[in-house]
User: Fold this.
Amino acid sequence: MPLSEKAVPLIGVVTPFLAIAFLAVGLRLHVRVTLLKNSGVDDWLCLGAALCSFGTYLANMTGIVVGFGNPLPSMTPEERDIALKTLWISPPLWGLSSSLVKMSIVTSYLRIWSGKRFKLLCYALICVISMFGLTLFLGGILACVPVSLSWGPPGPASRDPRHCMDLPLFMFATSIPNTAIDLAVLAVPIPLFRKLHIAPKQRAALTAVFTVGVVVCIASIMRLVTLQHVRHTEDPSVSGLPLGIWSGVELDLGIICACLPTLRPMIARAFPRLLGSTADSELSWQGTQRITRDGNGSYRMHELHSNDEDGKSRNGDTETITIRGTSGFPCAPAPLHLDRHSKSYMNFD
Assistant:
């Protein structure tokens, strides 16, 4: 069957977003594994999200090749079988990828802030995201029992609620808490973000990341609106195209947003003046302690800590020292013992 003209926007919009997402993940792993030698769980969760997103993309492209976008009755039985299989596998992969990228972002928060209440909130959010992602994955895979009814020809069994659930209704119902979780992941660090003592250009870079996060939430809301229309149509091949576009955009933007902060060291090296570094920046290592010399001669640690509820700085059990710059004035206290696992992904050089 010839390619449906209605499928062209899906290819034209989702393909570049997926390419940028994979580029961002590749650069993230280059920075964390090669440059900083400080990879963490959040990096591999983000890689898993990108791979699942690629699986969703492949399923959509396979469906497009056999006529996805054209009415199902116009397809041959073989084409319809393949199209329905791609429609069956795409939602579970999307749900798994969406949950993995959210978990990656929340896990990254734990590298920046160390307050007990904040940690408990993050762990609770990770548990909620994990259970929700498992619900999305299993709900999509087992939408019909036996599973073969999900792509079989329409019949009494496929309409029987004892064998198949209302998948469009399930997707719409789960999209509401999915959007709520997106907003929660974005909102959780905002109060602590204002307490970070970082340079204005670094703060502007983080603000840009949060702006991308807002766009992700907007895409999530648009996907929810699209699902409302899908529920009232009989042909998923035609109605699924707008859903595929917004699902891909939301997913890939989320992956890009999760990777942006980790690219800061590479950008700072390539463009030292862009993000607040200076041309004469020097990097020195004293044991496991990382100290950067600023252009004004002062020294400071780039590890970021959160504040307790009473406003006092938390350094755990680590000793602190006061490092004096060339001007003789004391700078911010720095931990004496930082292993590679305690370094923040916000290390800027």
In short: The beta strands are 282-286, 289-293, 299-300, 320-321, 334-335. The longest helix spans residues 77-112. Residues 277-349 have pLDDT under 50 and may be disordered.
